[in-house]
Design goal:
Chain lengths: 429, 386
């Protein structure tokens, strides 16, 4: 059966021509659950509870959805996708890396953020009934991939993640930009019996620019998700390699605006994995642009009377860069599709998410080095846009657990399971 | 850049699970009967024709081919599962694997009907071993330098010259070879080569062994002295072989055999570091696991894209480049990560034997089936640099 369209909020409708079935209605019941009717020749043939818009993700040529124990293979049209297309248009119009790089102020940020908000992108992962766009996880990851291609320097990924964290716990998300805390695996924030938050966490991306912070905290009775006004916290000055805010945030008996107990399974590991996969997807997008910039430059730049791209040594470097880009695309795509089709964070999601962060961070290290080698001196000037991409992917390595952190976690897990369980684990993916 | 890199998120379909269990049960049974030892690579010969016949009887050779020719009309993803399970188990598949992966598909595409009917069902039954005759003493990666000559005679061709690095030639029934039928032209140096099917029992063929530094006897020199090949054994267009070897190479390049040949090292590493490894071992192991998982996801993706009728030529070259380099480095990575484990660990002997063997075969991984340099040239062309 062909699914011809899915209604999941006005921004997310996609229609395919020449299909006998149409989706007639859509009811959002839960952030991760949508029900809809399939109409064929004017008759209701099925009422389905599932994730219809997942099926329309451009990277999924073959998808499945399940209803009870019934699994129906569905072939989707992997043509252009309205969500990523509209995102790309906004990035290109209002956050073009070349234009931004020439400016020495942040005047471009306000109109850009406004356009993103108008398109419903920052709250994409917030369900409609809680004021968001109700996009699927897969759609949100696809947007982050495009954001990576433009090296977007506003807290889009952070606001998406904050919206996801808050609404998974049933806490309504505010408008405006947000970030999440903690963003390092070893950091903890304490939820005290008097209903306040205490603790100090490092490396919180865009904390100095965000209006709100979504917090995952430890209480005596378990994990709590809280929304905090950034102005209620002490935020220290700090920047990443790429010059984006990255701040130490101190919570000193901060009273949250609202909070709720985290549902079962929403814990530190889940947050670190969601953050890691988001950074992986952004890294893959940025590497796509780095590869494309590098190939264009090698074809244009003339030395020894020919374009440097004609030299075998340069060609082989660029082939290696293509390899690193391919690794990042495949690893992040695999993890995003896994988490996008899952409702929990178990062994499979850990295996995929950890692998993605490890491989994308390694690809960032090697890929950035190769690109800078291809560009020569111009590549590490402030004037050239290459650093907007390379420094960001290098900085993203450290967010939500570095590759070293996840590798040690993954290695311990594999060792604990033992040699006999190893191949079945790999082959199950 | 001419186009974007693409890795569709392909998952093996549910029918593959049952097949995988069936293959594992078969292999466990063969190991129990002593057909091969999964922990001892390089011991004994890696080909076993009676074993290949049992695999053929299970329907696991020529899986994707038409039933008309003895095949089973199953998907490339199902074939993928069978290939990876046999590699991981370290099972001896050399007798049929080349025919299954490469030679059969070439015959399916280019051989006359009566030749297909005669040969393909025997491949599927595991009865035939094939050898590829490409390289010559003066022609390795530069295939278009092939000099071994096929001269037109009555009802066929007369072959003179020699082929080298021919894996399996000493046990093979047939060779698919590239011979020169015309000189190259000024406009096109790739012109003038033709593919032939050669019966290895033909008079005038001499096979001289070449031993490798690992101690294995895998490849050979094959000398042709006035060897007659009949007209109906020409495969495809005369003088036009260069057009015939593009999309098939994607199958050859990106399979799981490109990074799973020494998989046993991963298992022995896990055994050596134990269930509670120190941070250094855990981190090193974790990186290898993530790298292997990603390679496999890329390889499955290419298989799925091929199944869907796409031509991921660049992606396939990338998978082989990354996969072979990863596997080539594996013995030393394992060596480093086990440097501080206690000397009395239970699998010390097995580990050291495997490391020694894997180290001696590591250099071939980035040579066979297209060297690193050739692959990077293909990738560069795909990027729009050539």
């Amino acid at each position: 059966m062909a699914i011809s369209g899915a209604a999941n909020g006005p921004n997310w409708i996609k229609r395919t021509e020449n299909s006998p079935d149409t989706i007639a209605s859509s009811v959002i019941a839960d952030p991760l659950e949508t029900s809809f009717d399939v109409i064929k020749e004017g008759r209701l043939i099925r009422h389905i509870v599932g994730l219809p818009s997942l099926l329309l993700h451009p990277t999924m040529a073959l998808c499945e959805w399940s209803q009870g124990n019934e699994r129906t293979p569905i072939v989707t049209n992997d043509s252009d996708h309205i969500v990523t297309e509209s995102a790309a248009r906004i990035f290109a119009d209002l956050a073009d890396p070349q234009t931004i790089n020439r400016l020495d102020n942040g005047a471009w940020k306000a109109p850009f953020w406004q356009a993103l908000s108008d398109a419903g992108l920052p709250l994409a992962w917030v369900p409609e009934r809680l004021g968001g766009a109700g996009a699927t996880l897969a759609e949100g990851f696809a947007v982050l991939g495009v954001a990576g291609r433009f090296a977007v320097a506003v807290p889009l990924a952070e606001t998406l993640l904050a919206g996801w964290l808050l609404t998974r716990a049933g806490v309504a998300a505010p408008n405006g930009s947000m970030t999440i805390a903690p963003s390092r695996p070893s950091d903890r924030i304490i939820f005290d019996n008097d209903g306040t938050l205490s603790g100090s966490v490092i490396g919180i991306p865009f904390a100095a620019e965000a209006q709100h912070i979504a917090v995952l905290a430890h209480g005596e009775e378990g994990v709590v998700v809280a929304l905090v006004a950034a102005s209620d916290c002490t935020i220290c000055e700090g920047r990443t390699l790429a010059g984006d805010p990255s701040n130490i945030v101190r919570f000193q008996r901060v009273k949250p605006l609202r909070y709720a107990r985290a549902p079962l399974g929403l814990d530190y590991t889940a947050l670190m994995l969601m953050g890691s996969v988001s950074r992986s997807v952004q890294t893959a997008g940025a590497l796509e642009s780095i590869l494309s910039l590098s190939v264009s430059y090698a074809n244009e730049r003339v030395a020894f009377e020919r374009p440097i791209g004609k030299f075998q040594a340069v060609q082989h470097n660029l082939a290696r860069l293509a390899g690193e880009t391919a690794i990042a695309l495949a690893a992040s795509g695999s993890a995003a599709s896994t988490i996008g089709q899952s409702d929990s964070f178990d062994e499979t999601e850990f295996f995929e998410g950890a692998s993605a962060k490890i491989r994308c961070a390694e690809a960032a290290t090697d890929g950035a080095a190769i690109a800078h080698q291809v560009f020569g001196a111009i590549g590490f000037t402030k004037e050239h846009i290459l650093h907007r991409f390379t420094l960001r992917i290098l900085a993203w390595r450290d967010d939500f657990g570095s590759e070293s952190y996840w590798a040690a976690e993954l290695g311990r897990h594999v060792a604990q399971e033992g040699a006999d369980e190893f191949w079945p684990m790999v082959a199950s993916r | 850049m001419s186009r974007k890199l693409q890795f569709d998120q392909i998952r093996l379909p549910p029918e593959c699970d049952a097949l995988r269990q069936e293959v594992r049960a078969f292999l466990a049974d063969e190991i129990a009967q002593g057909t091969f030892d999964p922990h001892r690579p390089g011991h004994g010969d890696s080909h076993d024709r009676t074993f290949s016949k049992r695999i053929g009887a299970k329907g696991w050779i020529g899986m994707t081919w038409s039933k008309k020719y003895g095949g089973h009309e199953r998907s490339f993803l199902e074939r993928y599962v069978v290939t990876e399970e046999f590699r991981v188990a370290n099972a001896p598949v050399r007798s049929h694997f080349v025919a299954d992966r490469q030679s059969g598909p070439i015959l399916l595409k280019y051989a006359p009907e009566h030749v297909k009917v005669n040969i393909l069902p025997r491949i599927c039954r595991g009865e035939l071993c094939f050898v590829i005759g490409m390289s010559e003493p003066g022609s390795g990666s530069d295939l278009f330098a092939v000099k071994t000559k096929a001269t037109k005679v009555d009802k066929g061709w007369r072959i003179n010259g020699s082929k080298i690095w021919t894996s399996n030639a000493h046990i093979a029934d047939y060779m698919i070879a590239l011979f020169r039928t015309s000189p190259p032209t000024n406009e096109n140096r790739r012109h003038g080569l033709t593919q032939f099917l050669v019966d290895m029992k033909t008079r005038g063929i001499k096979v001289n062994p070449i031993y490798q530094m690992s101690g294995q006897h895998d490849f050979n020199e094959v000398v042709f002295e006035d060897v007659f090949v009949p007209d109906d054994h020409v495969l495809g267009e005369i003088d036009g072989a260069w057009k015939q070897a593009t999309s098939e190479l994607a199958y050859e390049r990106s399979g799981p055999e490109r990074f799973l040949e020494t998989f046993y090292l991963m298992l022995e590493l896990i055994r050596a570091v134990g269930s509670e490894p120190d941070t250094r071992s855990a981190e090193g192991l974790g990186r290898l696991v993530a790298q292997l998982h990603t390679l496999r996801r890329m390889s499955v993706s290419v298989a799925g894209m091929l199944q869907a009728g796409k031509e991921p030529v660049v992606e396939a070259a990338i998978v082989k480049d990354l996969g072979t380099i990863w596997e080539q480095n594996l013995p030393n990575r394992v060596r480093e990560l086990t440097a501080f484990v206690p000397p009395e660990i239970a699998n010390r002997v097995t580990l050291e034997e495997q490391l020694a063997f894997a180290t001696t075969i590591a250099p071939k991984l980035t040579i066979q089936g297209g060297t690193t340099e050739i692959l990077r040239g293909i990738i560069a062309r795909g990027l729009g640099l050539r």
